[in-house]
Amino acid sequence: MNTVIETLVDIVAKDPYPAEFTSSYWREYGKSNVVERRNGDLYLEDYGIGTVRGSWLAGHTLHAAERFSYRSVSSAYRSYPAMWNLARELARDLRCSLTFDIWKYTVILSLLNDHWIDHKLFPRTVAVIGDGHGFLGALIRRHLKSMRLYCIDIPKTLVFQARNHEAADPQARLAVMSHGGDDSADVVFVLPQDVLQIRDTIDCAINIASMQEMNALTISHYFSFLRQRSSRQSRFYCVNRVEKTLPGGEVARFSEFPWRKDDEIFIDGLCPYYTHFFAKQTLPRGPKILGVRIPFVNYFDGDTMHRLVRLASE
Ligand SMILES: C[S@@+](CC[C@H](N)C(=O)[O-])C[C@H]1O[C@@H](n2cnc3c(N)ncnc32)[C@H](O)[C@@H]1O
Questions:
Q1: Could you tell me which of 46, 12, 70 has the C-alpha nearest to residue 191?
Q2: 130 lines ligand 1 (CB under 6 A)
């Protein structure tokens, strides 16, 4: 096992869910994520951190139909064809299949890349908060080769990310922020409580389907960190549910995130690539024709917002 993965596995063994930064959602569902050493090997079982694996057949039938159903959305992004080629290559290298989430990460990078080109921005530091398996971060690194990536997440999930970053780029220099996080590293893994150790300005921060499962303290902690590391060129892309009720009864509301009036907003509204998904099961929520549910096409549990913003500095 690579030393960075060893370090992260040791952190998991001591404190898999830092109490202050773990919501009731992750206290409940985090247990289903398994990160263990078994007979000297690393044993991982993921739950609720995004879907990047599935059958090849589903990727080329069900999810191909899904991508077709979203064609008017993806074709609006000029960078999409090139990013989809990159995503397919990365999926092949990581033995992932072409799931909804992989397509979603591609659309996200396409949207951001169009914006960077239009605004003549050249991001050199990117922070992905809550990147699940790390596919989006790895895809961004394939596109922006000489940037530094900060992967900010709870310890167990960082192990999944470290494995995928190592496989995506075996030459990459990986580091853990709290264990000597090296200024020359390409990918730095950061625990929630250590974000203020990051000295770089963050050119682009991204949070997808993740603040919606955090407690209010954690959300304001990240906003405060991003405001402290924000420059005139910085961007924050936030894609989260309009509202989500967590098992402990807390409600995470997009509109109640600590936005400020002097934040400069570039994109804001319902997220066009987060309306429906195709699955083998036809769930109760979904479109109907003449009162009959269309098989395999399902709505998400709630609407999702997206906002691209320059956070005003603190
Ligand atoms: C539903 S998954 C979303 C994964 C990915 N962004 C996607 O859209 O497919 C939620 C992510 O938030 C992470 N997360 C939960 N609590 C967190 C915290 N306090 N700080 C950072 N990430 C957290 C989880 O570990 C996971 O990576």
A1: 12
A2: yes
Residue 250: CB atoms within 10 A of its CB come to: 15
Residue 252, ligand 1, Cβ within 6 A: no
Burial category of 265 from C-beta neighbours within 10 Å (exposed 0-12, middle 13-18, buried 19 and up)? exposed
Quick: pLDDT tens for 102-147.
999 999 999 999 999 999 999 999 999 999 999 999 999 999 988 9
CATH fold, domain 3-310, is Rossmann fold (3.40.50)
Domain definitions of the chain by residue range: 3-310
The residue whose CA is least distant from atom 11 of ligand 1 is: 130
Helix (H, G, I), strand (E, B), or coil: what is residue 23? coil
- How far is the centre of ligand 1, averaged over its atoms, from the C-alpha of 292 (Å)? 35
CA of 53 to the centre of ligand 1 (A): 17
| CA 292-296-160 angle, 5° bins | 150
CA 100 – CA 136 distance, rounded (Å): 13
Element (H, E) at 227: helix 216-228
Is the C-alpha dihedral spanning 227, 229, 231, 235 positive or negative? negative
Ligand 1 pocket, 157 CB below 6 A? Answer: yes
The pTM for the full model equals: 0.97
CA of 129 to the centre of ligand 1 (A): 7
Q: What atom of ligand 1 comes closest to residue 132's alpha carbon? A: 27
Position 210 scores a pLDDT of 98
Residue identifier of the C-alpha nearest atom 24 of ligand 1: 130
CA distance 244 to 212: 6
